[in-house]
Amino acid sequence: MAELELSVKYETLPNRIGFYAMAALFPIWSLFIPFLLGMVISYLMTNPSAIQNPQITLAILMGLSSVPILGVLCTAFFEDNRLYISKSGVSFPLFMMPFLGFKRNRSWSELTGAGVIRRGIKTTTDEPDQLYLNFKKTMPAAFKISHFDRTKLEQMLLAIELWSSSSVRTPELIDYQDQLHNENKGLGRLSQVDMWEEELSRRFSATSFVPLEPGRKICGGSIEIIRQLAFGGLSAIYLAQQNNKNIVVVKEAVVPSNADAETKSKAAEHFFRESRFLMSLDHPQIAKVLGHFSDEGRDYMLMQYIQGQDLRQLVKQQGRQPELRVVTWALEIAAILEYLHTQSPPVIHRDLTPDNLVSDNNGQVTLIDFGAANQFVGTATGTLVGKQSYISPEQLRGKAGTISDIYSFGGTLHYLLTGEDPVPLAVSHPNAINPNVSMEMDELVADLTRFDESKRLNDLGLITIRLKAIQTRLMRDGEEAAPAGKIGGGQA
Fold first, then answer.
1. Residue 401, in any domain of the structure
2. Is the distance from CB of 413 to CB of 330 less than 8 angstroms?
3. What is the radius of gyration, based on Cα positions, of the chain?
4. Taking CA 239 as the corner, what is the angle to CA 235 and CA 244, rounded to the nearest 5 degrees?
């Protein structure tokens, strides 16, 4: 796992006013005053007799000399509006030093507690006013939550959770972190299509289960749950720590308690057989399955934690992506699918969506979270595996095949090109939403999302050829893929 290095902007009103003021005064302190100082020195050197009082002359010269220096220092002070977070600790902006005992860099071992403050009469679902961090031997460092970018704030809270194991996080902070995570993932605000999808999901889900709480230890105490990343139906995904050092992802699957003994036995056998098979996969852009185990009647798969930002979060932050960058990602995804589909037996991912593709700092994508590992749950209970906007008609009928991943692939490309989820169970045409998408790309996405399996493009070699042709044309026409930027989160 790559080490997290996060830069979080925190811009207060005084800082903003101070920086703009220094920028407005820039011609005076950086140009006029130095010019005036030069003129005075030149005059005094050519007219020594003008120096009547050396002390006053020296004071004037020092005063004029100090103005540019103070201008540079003040500009740097007001411009310093970022927190830098790493595994070793936090580096705070200069203006916060008086609240931190004039110690700018604080290690995680010095953090004793963190929480949020809600002022006035508000419900627990309202936005808190402040985030506070308690450090040893100093007053609390308080931050107005409205001054943070929400995605960066979530990543900052996750860093506190991961690396400040000795500090105490208040229940209010934990609740707010979950609320923020759901908001950044687009949950909680259901459109008409979302509600249709929610109802469809409920019809295919026979029952639910209670996910593990943070702090719960499993696998003989060697794995501690840090937080839930996602859950629903009869499965959940957690961020966890193994042996008090390695960060891992734990995928949990549960067979209903009312299932008969034979069904439970077959389900467990299928899960472990599939887990062992997934452990044999070895591809640099596929999250490694590290192991599997059972604990108190639940089955778990242990997976590699991939540092980066999933493509849904990236699009939410940056908007629809340039076609050339999407084509570059598409070629990588096609290579991943070809590797999976050529295994013996073929591996069907069943949940290829923007949420399960993580982009690292170099912009390369990695596939995470095998929906295939939930196949036995779907067989036993009818649970629908996969997000509805990306599910093919045959997968909806419970007859998923490798061609089903192709449909999800096309839906994912539609989202990256438009910033919008595709309409469920429909042929996708991204050009209808984003006219900048070329007709060649629009036709390819449509061919990948044909409703009829017999008409859907299912040859990954041919898909790659068409993608490379589009890539060549775009590069010839001079289109550039904007830089992906530094990524600060983790897989979710």
1. yes
2. yes
3. 28
4. 130
What is the rounded distance in angstroms from the CA atom of residue 104 to the CA atom of residue 90? 8
Q: Which two tokens stand for residue 122?
A: 């508000």
Q: Could you tell me which residues come within 8 angstroms of residue 344 by beta carbon, excluding any fewer than 6 positions away?
A: none
Range of the domain at 176: 88-184
**One domain, residues 380 and 294:** no
**What does each of the 492 residues of the chain score in pLDDT, given as a tens digit?**
334 467 888 877 777 787 788 888 888 888 888 888 888 888 878 887 777 788 888 888 888 888 888 888 887 777 777 888 887 888 888 877 777 778 888 888 888 888 888 664 444 445 567 888 888 877 778 888 888 888 888 888 877 877 776 778 887 887 787 777 666 655 444 443 444 444 444 444 444 567 788 889 999 999 999 988 776 556 788 899 999 888 999 988 777 666 777 777 777 777 787 788 888 899 999 989 999 898 887 889 899 988 888 899 899 989 999 999 999 999 999 999 999 999 888 888 888 999 889 998 778 999 987 654 444 333 433 344 446 789 898 887 778 899 999 999 999 999 999 999 998 888 999 999 999 999 999 999 999 999 888 999 999 999 999 999 999 999 998 765 444 443 334 454
Return the closest-CA partner of residue 479 out of 355, 290, 322.
322
Last residue of a domain, one of 149, 184, 219: 184
Residues 150 and 266 occupy one common structural domain: no
Domain match, 316 and 297 both = no
CA of 39: how far to CAs of 27, 34, 44, 225, in Å? Answer: 17, 9, 9, 69
Domain presence at residue 239: yes
Mapping DSSP to helix (H, G, I), strand (E, B) and coil, where does residue 257 land?
Answer: coil
Verify that 220 and 235 share a domain, yes or no.
Answer: yes
3-state secondary structure of 367: strand
**Distance (Å, rounded) from C-alpha 107 to C-alpha 82?**
17
The reply to whether 289 and 263 lie within a common domain is yes
Same domain, 251 and 108: no
8 inside domain: no
Q: What 3-state DSSP class applies to 20? A: helix
Total domain count, the chain: 4
Last residue of a domain, one of 304, 329, 345: 304
> Are β-strands 223-232 and 217-218 bridged in parallel, bridged antiparallel, or unpaired?
antiparallel
Indicate whether 338 and 412 sit together in one domain.
yes
Asked if the structure places residue 157 within a domain, the reply is: yes
Same domain, 155 and 94: yes
Q: What is the DSSP letter of 369?
A: -
C-alpha–C-alpha distance, residues 249 and 166, integer Å: 21
For residues 66 and 60, what is the distance between their CA atoms, to the nearest angstrom?
10
Residue 26 φ/ψ, nearest 5 degrees: -50, -45
Helix/strand/coil percent split, the chain, to 5: 45, 20, 35
